[in-house]
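Researcher: I'd like a candidate sequence for this fold, 112 residues long. If you have to choose between options at a position, lean toward the conservative one.
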C-alpha cells in the first residue's frame, strides 16, 4: 500500500527514531484511505488514539507523517513530511494535535 502514513509515537520514540535516522519496522502505520482531507484527518486521529495508548496518559501524543509505501521496511526520515503532537502534557484526548515541520523536530524534542 502506498500513500500518506500516520505512525503513532511518543516524544521518546521520536527522539530515538531521529537519532537512528529511520522509523523501524514493525511499526504499524495507519494509512489514509484516500487523499481527501476527511480521510487524512481520520487516519491522523486514529494514530493519535494509538499514541495515547503508547504513552498511557503520561506525556504527549505524537504522530509522525510520512509519504510512501507501507512495505515492511523501515521508514527513512527523508520520507517524513510532518509531525503532529500535543503542545503540552495531559491534553484532552479530543483536542487536535499541533503541526510541526520536519525542521522543527529537534526543537520539539528539546522542549519536552
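Model: Candidate sequence:
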Amino acid at each position: 500500500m502506498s500513500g500518506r502514513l500516520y505512525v503513532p509515537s511518543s516524544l521518546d520514540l521520536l527522539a530515538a527514531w531521529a537519532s537512528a535516522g529511520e522509523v523501524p519496522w514493525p511499526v504499524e502505520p495507519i494509512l489514509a484511505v484516500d487523499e481527501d482531507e476527511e480521510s487524512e484527518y481520520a487516519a491522523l486521529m486514529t494514530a493519535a488514539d494509538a499514541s495515547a495508548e503508547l504513552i498511557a496518559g503520561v506525556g504527549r501524543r505524537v504522530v509522525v507523517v510520512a509519504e510512501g509505501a507501507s512495505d515492511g521496511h523501515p521508514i527513512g526520515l527523508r520520507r517524513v513530511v510532518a509531525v503532529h503532537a500535543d503542545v503540552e502534557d495531559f491534553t484532552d484526548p479530543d483536542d487536535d494535535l499541533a503541526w510541526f515541520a520536519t525542521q522543527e523536530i529537534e526543537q520539539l524534542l528539546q522542549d519536552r
